[in-house]
Amino acid sequence: MVLDPFCGRGTTNFAARLVGLRSLGVDSSPVATAIAASKLVMASVEEILDEARRILAEREASHIPEGEFWQWAFDPTVLDALCRFREAFLEDCTSDARIALRGIVLGALHGPKQKTFPSYFSNQCPRTYAPKPAYATRYWRERGLVPEPIDVLAVIKRRAKRYYSMSSDTTGAVRLADSRKAESLQPESPDTRFNWVITSPPYYGMRTYIPDQWLRNWFVGGPDVVNYTNCNQIVHSSPEEYSADLRRVWRNAKNVSVENAIMVIRFGGITDRRANPLDLIKSSLNDSGWRITTIKKAGTATEGKRQADSFLRKRSTPMTEYDIWTVRQ
Ligand SMILES: C[S@@+](CC[C@H](N)C(=O)[O-])C[C@H]1O[C@@H](n2cnc3c(N)ncnc32)[C@H](O)[C@@H]1O
Fold this sequence. Notes:
Layout: E1 2-4, H1 11-18, E2 23-27, H2 30-38, H3 45-58, H4 68-73, H5 76-91, H6 96-108, H7 133-143, H8 152-164, E3 173-176, E4 194-199, H9 209-212, H10 214-219, H11 239-255, E5 257-267, H12 277-285, E6 290-300, E7 320-328
Parallel strand pairs: 1-2, 1-4, 2-3, 4-5
Antiparallel strand pairs: 5-7, 6-7
The site of S-adenosylmethionine (SAM) has 22 residues, from strand 2.
């Protein structure tokens, strides 16, 4: 049984599933948990497409956001379809097919225009973060980039085939919660305990997960404007408060793990902060119930293909990342 208290988009949970291990992922971002959940369900391509067709045929959108940004970001037919999906999922997103479909739409919501088949619903955009409205509208207007009428079902079909053609019996659970609270990490069944904790917390200073994902956050129920409040996110006001917040999470993880459980933390830094990442993580582990056994260099964020790529806008200064191996005391 594997726990990731900062599961983000569910890399740990998906990796656990691939090797047949059950897992629990917890994250306080609704976008992250929606994407992670879509990696753990069992749904066939046909079930996903049927659900998409049904929603588009049977629903009318009751609210469609207005204003310059929305006019430039999506063709009106595409925005209408997105609003139908959005409202359907907000009403009920409990079946595996819907969870899968929501993940697919979130992934395709914005990204670059493709030369061959369209892969994204939006006008030209970055894939990994949503541009702020004023900047994006200026960019599109200056270049005369108008949004195209994308065949929404065709995009969904291609993605469903790519992600859901293989099946696995192992599933897992994902929870939208603040891992600093003890109850957030409780396993689904009271007699289960975790053997592994595999995680990567927000690096010190990386506090823009929610505003950077404001468009996807809108899709899962957030407002149709950028939201800067850092709801239930780790505090970054000082290194001391940051370490104390992480320590809370490590202690909570200890309380739901078996004796000798292993926790591995992938950790690095972002370049605009002077705090030393290794000092920060070591201090967070003091008195946490976990003892460091090994620290391995995991290379820099520009070597190979890795998660941190998504968080780097300019590849100027590569940051070294570390894997901190600990054992439960
Ligand atoms: C480095 S990312 C994790 C990336 C992840 N491994 C993945 O596969 O995408 C850190 C995550 O911590 C989450 N987070 C920040 N504060 C949190 C808190 N108090 N409780 C739970 N999750 C939190 C953020 O929303 C973000 O998704």
